[in-house]
Predict the structure.
Amino acid sequence: MQTKTPQPLAVADGVYQLSTGPGPITFHVSLVRAGPGWVLGDAGWTRTPTP
């Protein structure tokens, strides 16, 4: 079985969203172009998973 590699989605000029889902633990991060580099933004969990 081949695994799909998540691809960033352009949401604005120089701003991308990356999701690692689907599943019970899905991460959504933002990548923002900052000059020659990038800034990674992670807003954290929306709720605490129950054990």
Notes: The two ends are 29 Å apart (CA to CA). The chain is about 0% helix and 45% strand. The CA atoms of residues 24 and 51 lie 12 Å apart.
